[in-house]
């Protein structure tokens, strides 16, 4: 039973040490400012719309091309 409590105490000490180290590391992080976050968010949203529209056009063109090929194949 003493071995169990020894391991349990070591486990809690490890967790506390991990949380202390995590807090130290978070203090070393250089957090972006509001302006930088806003700028990168706008870039990401614009890229999503651009690639979404691009893939829509590619799908439309390929879909129509496949329908045309199927129509030609159905004639024979």
Task: Output the number of helix runs.
Answer: 2
Overall pLDDT metric: 93
> Which range best describes the helical content: under 10%, 10-25%, 25-40%, 40-55%, 55-70% or over 70%?
over 70%
Main sheet overview = none
Overall structural class, as computed from helix and strand content, comes to mainly alpha
- First and last CA, distance: 84 Å
Order of helices and strands: HH
What fraction strand? under 5%
Ranges with pLDDT <50 over ≥5 residues?
Answer: none
Give the C-alpha Rg. Answer: 29 Å
Give structural notes.
With 76 residues, this protein is mostly helical. The chain folds into two domains: 1-30; 32-76. 91% of the residues lie in helices and 0% in strands. It is built from two helices and no strands. The protein has helices at residues 2-28, 34-75. The mean pLDDT is 93.
